[in-house]
Protein backbone atom coordinates (compact mmCIF):
# COMPACT_ATOMS: atom_id res chain seq x y z
CA UNK A 1 0.00 0.00 0.00
CA UNK A 2 1.47 3.34 -1.04
CA UNK A 3 1.10 6.21 1.39
CA UNK A 4 -0.79 9.24 0.16
CA UNK A 5 0.70 12.69 -0.21
CA UNK A 6 -1.03 14.18 2.84
CA UNK A 7 0.46 11.55 5.15
CA UNK A 8 3.96 12.21 3.79
CA UNK A 9 3.56 15.97 4.13
CA UNK A 10 2.30 15.64 7.70
CA UNK A 11 5.23 13.44 8.67
CA UNK A 12 7.86 15.86 7.35
CA UNK A 13 6.11 18.76 9.08
CA UNK A 14 6.45 16.95 12.43
CA UNK A 15 9.52 17.22 14.72
CA UNK A 16 10.37 13.57 14.02
CA UNK A 17 10.11 14.09 10.27
CA UNK A 18 12.29 17.19 10.44
CA UNK A 19 14.98 15.35 12.39
CA UNK A 20 14.84 12.47 9.86
CA UNK A 21 15.15 14.97 7.03
CA UNK A 22 18.25 16.55 8.58
CA UNK A 23 19.94 13.20 9.19
CA UNK A 24 19.32 11.84 5.69
CA UNK A 25 20.13 15.14 3.98
CA UNK A 26 23.51 15.22 5.73
CA UNK A 27 24.35 11.88 4.11
CA UNK A 28 23.08 13.00 0.69
CA UNK A 29 25.25 16.11 0.72
CA UNK A 30 28.25 14.07 1.86
CA UNK A 31 27.79 11.84 -1.18
CA UNK A 32 26.98 14.47 -3.79
CA UNK A 33 28.56 17.74 -2.66
CA UNK A 34 28.02 20.86 -4.78
CA UNK A 35 25.41 20.30 -7.50
CA UNK A 36 25.73 23.70 -9.18
CA UNK A 37 25.01 23.53 -12.89
CA UNK A 38 23.57 20.00 -12.81
CA UNK A 39 20.10 18.66 -13.63
CA UNK A 40 18.54 16.91 -10.64
CA UNK A 41 15.46 14.67 -10.45
CA UNK A 42 13.74 13.54 -7.25
CA UNK A 43 11.41 10.54 -7.50
CA UNK A 44 8.87 9.48 -4.87
CA UNK A 45 8.58 12.15 -2.20
CA UNK A 46 11.72 14.23 -2.46
CA UNK A 47 10.85 17.93 -1.83
CA UNK A 48 12.24 18.07 1.75
CA UNK A 49 15.56 16.78 0.45
CA UNK A 50 15.80 18.67 -2.84
CA UNK A 51 15.43 21.92 -0.95
CA UNK A 52 18.50 21.23 1.17
CA UNK A 53 20.96 20.15 -1.53
CA UNK A 54 24.27 21.98 -1.73
CA UNK A 55 24.92 24.41 -4.56
CA UNK A 56 22.48 25.68 -7.16
CA UNK A 57 21.39 22.97 -9.61
CA UNK A 58 20.58 24.19 -13.11
CA UNK A 59 17.26 22.35 -12.94
CA UNK A 60 15.46 20.51 -10.13
CA UNK A 61 12.35 18.44 -10.88
CA UNK A 62 10.24 16.33 -8.52
CA UNK A 63 8.38 13.31 -9.91
CA UNK A 64 5.62 11.90 -7.68
CA UNK A 65 3.79 8.62 -8.47
CA UNK A 66 0.16 9.06 -9.49
CA UNK A 67 -0.96 6.50 -6.89
CA UNK A 68 0.59 8.70 -4.18
CA UNK A 69 -0.63 12.10 -5.30
CA UNK A 70 1.35 15.31 -5.58
CA UNK A 71 1.55 18.90 -4.48
CA UNK A 72 3.05 21.95 -6.14
CA UNK A 73 6.75 22.42 -5.51
CA UNK A 74 8.64 24.61 -4.90
CA UNK A 75 6.74 27.34 -3.10
CA UNK A 76 7.00 30.67 -4.85
CA UNK A 77 5.95 32.56 -7.91
CA UNK A 78 8.01 30.73 -10.54
CA UNK A 79 5.52 27.90 -10.97
CA UNK A 80 5.67 24.24 -10.08
CA UNK A 81 8.52 21.84 -10.87
CA UNK A 82 6.41 18.82 -9.89
CA UNK A 83 5.32 16.09 -12.30
CA UNK A 84 2.70 13.42 -11.59
CA UNK A 85 3.24 10.19 -13.50
CA UNK A 86 3.14 6.44 -13.72
CA UNK A 87 6.48 5.33 -12.25
CA UNK A 88 6.93 2.83 -15.11
CA UNK A 89 6.63 5.57 -17.76
CA UNK A 90 8.58 8.62 -16.66
CA UNK A 91 7.59 11.68 -18.73
CA UNK A 92 11.14 12.72 -19.65
CA UNK A 93 13.47 12.38 -22.60
CA UNK A 94 16.31 9.87 -22.53
CA UNK A 95 19.58 10.66 -20.74
CA UNK A 96 18.87 14.13 -19.32
CA UNK A 97 19.42 14.02 -15.53
CA UNK A 98 22.86 14.15 -13.89
CA UNK A 99 21.67 13.24 -10.40
CA UNK A 100 18.58 11.23 -9.45
CA UNK A 101 17.32 10.84 -5.87
CA UNK A 102 14.82 8.05 -5.19
CA UNK A 103 13.09 8.07 -1.79
CA UNK A 104 9.69 6.72 -0.66
CA UNK A 105 9.42 5.01 -4.03
CA UNK A 106 11.22 1.72 -4.64
CA UNK A 107 9.94 -0.03 -1.50
CA UNK A 108 6.33 0.65 -2.49
CA UNK A 109 6.38 -0.16 -6.19
CA UNK A 110 5.06 -3.46 -7.49
CA UNK A 111 7.29 -3.23 -10.57
CA UNK A 112 10.82 -2.65 -9.26
CA UNK A 113 12.74 -3.89 -12.36
CA UNK A 114 10.70 -1.77 -14.77
CA UNK A 115 10.90 1.23 -12.44
CA UNK A 116 14.69 1.03 -12.19
CA UNK A 117 15.09 0.63 -15.95
CA UNK A 118 13.06 3.80 -16.45
CA UNK A 119 15.41 5.56 -14.04
CA UNK A 120 18.31 4.20 -16.09
CA UNK A 121 16.71 5.52 -19.28
CA UNK A 122 16.38 9.13 -18.10
CA UNK A 123 19.85 9.18 -16.52
CA UNK A 124 22.62 11.00 -18.36
CA UNK A 125 25.81 9.06 -19.16
CA UNK A 126 27.73 8.53 -15.91
CA UNK A 127 24.78 9.92 -13.93
CA UNK A 128 24.80 9.25 -10.20
CA UNK A 129 21.63 7.68 -8.85
CA UNK A 130 20.98 7.58 -5.11
CA UNK A 131 18.32 5.16 -3.87
CA UNK A 132 17.12 5.37 -0.27
CA UNK A 133 15.00 2.59 1.22
CA UNK A 134 14.08 1.33 4.70
CA UNK A 135 16.76 -0.94 6.12
CA UNK A 136 15.52 -4.47 6.78
CA UNK A 137 17.62 -4.58 9.97
CA UNK A 138 16.55 -1.17 11.27
CA UNK A 139 13.79 -0.39 13.76
CA UNK A 140 12.26 2.26 11.47
CA UNK A 141 11.04 -0.48 9.11
CA UNK A 142 9.10 -1.99 12.03
CA UNK A 143 7.23 1.21 12.95
CA UNK A 144 4.10 2.11 11.01
CA UNK A 145 4.06 5.56 12.58
CA UNK A 146 6.53 6.79 9.93
CA UNK A 147 6.61 6.40 6.11
CA UNK A 148 9.67 4.16 6.46
CA UNK A 149 7.50 1.46 8.04
CA UNK A 150 5.53 0.88 4.83
CA UNK A 151 6.38 -1.15 1.77
CA UNK A 152 9.22 -3.63 1.43
CA UNK A 153 12.43 -2.96 3.38
CA UNK A 154 15.71 -3.97 1.77
CA UNK A 155 19.09 -5.10 2.92
CA UNK A 156 22.00 -3.40 1.18
CA UNK A 157 22.83 -6.59 -0.66
CA UNK A 158 19.26 -6.89 -2.02
CA UNK A 159 19.25 -3.27 -3.11
CA UNK A 160 22.60 -3.55 -4.86
CA UNK A 161 21.43 -6.67 -6.70
CA UNK A 162 18.34 -4.89 -8.01
CA UNK A 163 20.44 -1.95 -9.16
CA UNK A 164 22.97 -4.12 -10.97
CA UNK A 165 20.16 -5.97 -12.75
CA UNK A 166 19.00 -2.58 -14.05
CA UNK A 167 22.53 -1.66 -15.27
CA UNK A 168 23.12 0.71 -12.38
CA UNK A 169 26.53 -0.08 -10.88
CA UNK A 170 26.69 0.47 -7.08
CA UNK A 171 29.53 2.82 -6.24
CA UNK A 172 28.94 4.11 -2.69
CA UNK A 173 26.74 3.47 0.30
CA UNK A 174 25.97 4.56 3.82
CA UNK A 175 23.17 4.37 6.41
CA UNK A 176 21.17 6.89 8.39
CA UNK A 177 18.39 7.23 11.00
CA UNK A 178 19.69 5.91 14.29
CA UNK A 179 17.30 8.07 16.29
CA UNK A 180 14.38 5.96 17.65
CA UNK A 181 11.26 6.47 15.46
CA UNK A 182 9.35 8.07 18.33
CA UNK A 183 8.04 11.63 18.10
CA UNK A 184 9.14 12.67 21.57
CA UNK A 185 11.16 15.82 22.16
CA UNK A 186 13.76 13.90 24.15
CA UNK A 187 14.63 12.04 20.94
CA UNK A 188 14.02 14.62 18.22
CA UNK A 189 15.94 17.38 20.01
CA UNK A 190 18.99 15.14 20.41
CA UNK A 191 18.87 13.42 17.01
CA UNK A 192 22.39 14.52 16.07
CA UNK A 193 23.77 12.73 19.12
CA UNK A 194 21.80 9.59 18.30
CA UNK A 195 23.19 9.62 14.77
CA UNK A 196 26.77 9.94 15.99
CA UNK A 197 26.38 7.22 18.62
CA UNK A 198 24.56 4.91 16.22
CA UNK A 199 27.35 5.14 13.62
CA UNK A 200 29.83 3.97 16.23
CA UNK A 201 27.94 1.37 18.25
CA UNK A 202 25.12 -0.07 16.08
CA UNK A 203 26.29 0.70 12.56
CA UNK A 204 24.25 -2.04 10.85
CA UNK A 205 20.94 -0.92 12.34
CA UNK A 206 20.40 2.47 10.75
CA UNK A 207 16.81 3.06 9.71
CA UNK A 208 17.56 3.54 6.03
CA UNK A 209 20.06 2.32 3.46
CA UNK A 210 21.47 4.82 0.97
CA UNK A 211 23.08 3.20 -2.07
CA UNK A 212 24.49 5.30 -4.88
CA UNK A 213 25.00 3.86 -8.35
CA UNK A 214 26.37 5.00 -11.69
CA UNK A 215 24.63 4.45 -15.00
CA UNK A 216 26.36 1.89 -17.18
CA UNK A 217 25.67 0.88 -20.75
CA UNK A 218 27.09 -2.59 -20.21
CA UNK A 219 28.27 -4.46 -17.10
CA UNK A 220 30.35 -7.60 -17.04
CA UNK A 221 28.65 -9.81 -14.42
CA UNK A 222 32.01 -11.39 -13.58
CA UNK A 223 33.48 -8.08 -12.45
CA UNK A 224 33.63 -7.91 -8.62
CA UNK A 225 31.47 -5.20 -7.14
CA UNK A 226 33.41 -2.38 -5.52
CA UNK A 227 31.82 0.13 -3.20
CA UNK A 228 33.01 3.05 -1.16
CA UNK A 229 31.49 4.07 2.14
CA UNK A 230 30.78 7.79 2.38
CA UNK A 231 29.69 9.55 5.56
CA UNK A 232 29.73 13.15 6.76
CA UNK A 233 33.04 14.39 8.12
CA UNK A 234 33.55 13.43 11.74
CA UNK A 235 31.65 10.17 11.46
CA UNK A 236 33.08 6.70 11.21
CA UNK A 237 31.98 4.53 8.24
CA UNK A 238 28.81 2.52 8.76
CA UNK A 239 30.90 -0.62 8.24
CA UNK A 240 34.48 -1.22 7.23
CA UNK A 241 35.29 -1.62 3.57
CA UNK A 242 36.17 -5.10 2.41
CA UNK A 243 36.80 -6.76 -0.91
CA UNK A 244 33.59 -8.81 -0.78
CA UNK A 245 31.24 -5.83 -1.10
TrEMBL record:
Which molecular-function annotation in GO is an example for this chain? methyltransferase activity
State which Enzyme Commission number(s) the record gives: 2.1.1.-
Identify the InterPro entries for this entry. Methyltransf_11 (IPR013216), SAM-dependent_MTases_sf (IPR029063)
Q: Does the keyword Transferase apply?
A: yes
Q: Which UniProt keywords apply?
A: Methyltransferase, Transferase
Work out whether the entry's keyword set contains Transferase. yes
Pfam families per UniProt: Methyltransf_11
What GO biological process term is on the record, naming one?
A: methylation
The Methyltransferase type domain, residue ranges: 85-130
Q: What is this protein called?
A: Class I SAM-dependent methyltransferase
Q: What organism is listed for this UniProt entry?
A: Ponticaulis profundi
Amino acid sequence: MRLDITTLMSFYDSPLGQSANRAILERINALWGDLSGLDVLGIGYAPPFLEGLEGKPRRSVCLMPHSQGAHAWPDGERGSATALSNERELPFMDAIFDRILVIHALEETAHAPDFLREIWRVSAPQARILIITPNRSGVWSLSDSTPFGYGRPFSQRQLKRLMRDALIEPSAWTRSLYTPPIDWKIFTSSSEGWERAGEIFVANFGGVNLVEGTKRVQIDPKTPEKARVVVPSGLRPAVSLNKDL
